[in-house]
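User: Let's play a game. I give you a shape written as tokens, and you guess the letters that built it. Ready? Here's round one.
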């Protein structure tokens, strides 16, 4: 039997999806060159080969387009981190896996670190409107929670106490990423992964052998 023909609505949805992807690809280039402040709907339209009127049925502003790009980025990051955490068996290993995946994802997707920091034209305090900012913050916390949950167990913290630790780890990873991408770690003969290992060694308490055991005596020698 032959497959039923697609309905007009199905075809319309396919066309709409294709247009969205075309606009998002064009917007990536526009934001990369002009930043959020300098980008315009006209500039995105020119890159996409359409009129601005063709954009508004899909996105009502450049901020809405930026929000969609960042949402997609955070969803991909979350999936990547979740996969790494799922393969780790202990809370300590889960923290290390989550942080390592976070760092490696952004090293492999450098456009997206600029996207997340709104940093295409320098670091500034920018946003895309309060409702969207809150939605994006929640999406980011979903990623960071994969670090927070095992870290709570590792350090014996209450849920309310873990956020500063997550902030510390995240700020250090972002700093290492920015420095490595800018080439500022080369002359120090180090890299972001090395800094992450050193940081985790400080943040994750290591189990110590009970007093009187052979391992404990050896550690004092």
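Assistant: Ready! My guess for every position:
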């Amino acid at each position: 039997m032959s497959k039923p023909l697609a309905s007009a609505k199905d075809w319309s949805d396919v066309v709409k999806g294709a247009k969205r992807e075309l606009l998002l690809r064009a917007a990536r280039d526009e934001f990369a060159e002009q930043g959020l402040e300098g980008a315009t709907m006209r500039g995105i339209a020119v890159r996409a080969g359409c009129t601005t009127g063709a954009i508004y049925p899909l996105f009502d502003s450049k901020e809405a387009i930026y929000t969609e790009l960042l949402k997609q980025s955070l969803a991909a990051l979350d999936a990547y981190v979740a996969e790494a955490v799922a393969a780790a068996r202990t809370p300590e290993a889960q923290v290390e896996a989550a942080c390592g995946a976070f760092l490696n994802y952004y090293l492999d997707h450098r456009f997206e670190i600029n996207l997340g920091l709104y940093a295409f034209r320098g670091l500034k305090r920018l946003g895309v409107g309060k409702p969207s900012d809150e939605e994006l913050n929640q999406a980011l916390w979903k990623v960071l929670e994969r670090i927070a949950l095992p870290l709570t167990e590792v350090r014996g913290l209450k849920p309310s106490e873990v956020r500063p630790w997550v902030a510390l780890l995240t700020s250090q990873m972002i700093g290492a990423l920015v420095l490595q991408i800018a080439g500022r770690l080369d002359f120090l003969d180090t890299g972001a992964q090395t800094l992450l290992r050193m940081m985790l060694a400080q943040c994750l308490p290591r189990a110590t052998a009970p007093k009187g055991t052979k391992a404990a005596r050896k550690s004092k020698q």
